[in-house]
């Protein structure tokens, strides 16, 4: 049976105008995989009967040097729920790549060389919930790319070169997690996150963001975690976070913030975790900024007159605070009126 299947795969590849001398069909991770000059021509299960009893079928095609995918390459494995095709050499995601994979829920394309994604490339992946595009060369997203992905919940695109633009994520109306860390992002335009009403986790750390406009987070009222750590922020505009009523955790660590005004954290009454380590805070910290945060834990915390502040929401006055050592509380001196 297995021999006949291999013969069938070889013949089908030949029918696509690729000579059998160029085709290399081997068993890899319990799959028959046929490649020709880096082009993936077909994939089939080594044991068809065995996979019929498996509920979640995973296709592992990592590290095979794949540069392109032929049309209908996945027709013999159409009942798969996850595809791992990371660590290859794909430079473009074409519209025909995923034909037949309408049950796919998880797609891992990390660590390729992807610089272009055709509009409609994922249009046939109606069941996709998680898409990983980390460590590629993507510079832009367009709404047309997201056709068919209305049920996508998680998008990871860290370590690319994505430049944010207004409305670029429209169509991902059920997205809950968006990871854009390490993309050299310098600007976050108002409207960049339009059409994402259910975002729960937004990660923008390790970029080059030096300022944020007050309305940039409008419409993200469901957000629970926001990571702006390790950017170049020197200040945070008053009312910046006022639309984030449900925010639980906020990372501002590793920036260049030198001032916290009374209205810096307006609207964050329910915040539980605030990460401020790795900033300067030399000029001014108005402690009334924390007055409504009844249950917040601040990392690394503050020391006033040598004593660690236990309940920052009860502290009044304005202070100059110096970061003495990493993970040590800020040493604060009160500014006399």
TrEMBL record:
InterPro entries in the record: Leu-rich_rpt (IPR001611), Leu-rich_rpt_typical-subtyp (IPR003591), LRR_dom_sf (IPR032675), SLRP (IPR050333)
Domain of life: Eukaryota
Database matches in Pfam families: LRR_8 (PF13855)
Entry keyword set: Leucine-rich repeat, Repeat, Signal
Database matches in Gene3D superfamilies: Ribonuclease Inhibitor (3.80.10.10)
Keyword tRNA-binding in annotation: no
Name of the protein described by the UniProt record: Leucine-rich repeat-containing protein 15
């Amino acid at each position: 049976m297995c021999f006949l299947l291999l013969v069938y795969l070889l013949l089908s590849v030949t029918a696509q105008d690729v000579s059998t001398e160029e085709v290399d069909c081997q068993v890899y991770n319990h799959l028959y995989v046929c490649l020709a000059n880096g082009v993936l021509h077909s994939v089939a299960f080594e044991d068809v009967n065995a996979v019929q009893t498996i509920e979640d079928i995973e296709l592992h095609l990592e590290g095979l040097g794949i540069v392109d995918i032929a049309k209908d390459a996945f027709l013999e494995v159409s009942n798969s729920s996850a595809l791992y095709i990371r660590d290859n050499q794909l430079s473009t995601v074409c519209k025909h790549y995923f034909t037949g994979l309408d049950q796919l829920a998880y797609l891992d394309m990390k660590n390729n060389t992807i610089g272009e994604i055709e509009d409609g490339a994922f249009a046939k992946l109606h069941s996709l919930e998680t898409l990983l595009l980390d460590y590629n060369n993507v510079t832009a997203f367009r709404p047309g790319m997201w056709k068919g992905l209305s049920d996508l919940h998680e998008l990871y695109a860290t370590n690319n070169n994505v430049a944010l633009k207004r409305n670029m994520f429209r169509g991902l109306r059920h997205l809950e997690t968006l990871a854009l860390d390490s993309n050299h992002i310098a600007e976050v335009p108002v409207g960049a996150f339009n059409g994402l009403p259910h975002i729960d986790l937004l990660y923008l750390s390790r970029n080059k963001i030096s300022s944020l406009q007050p309305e940039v987070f409008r419409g993200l009222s469901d957000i629970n975690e926001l990571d702006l750590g390790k950017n170049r922020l020197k200040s945070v505009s008053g009312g910046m976070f006022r639309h984030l009523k449900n925010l639980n955790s906020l990372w501002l660590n590793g920036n260049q913030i030198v001032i916290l005004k009374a209205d810096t954290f307006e609207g964050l009454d329910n915040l539980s975790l605030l990460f401020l380590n790795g900033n300067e805070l030399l000029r001014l910290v108005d402690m009334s900024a924390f007055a409504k945060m009844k249950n917040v834990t601040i990392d690394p915390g503050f020391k006033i007159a040598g004593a660690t502040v236990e309940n920052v929401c009860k502290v009044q006055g304005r202070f100059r605070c110096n970061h003495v050592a990493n993970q040590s509380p800020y040493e604060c001196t009160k500014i006399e009126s």
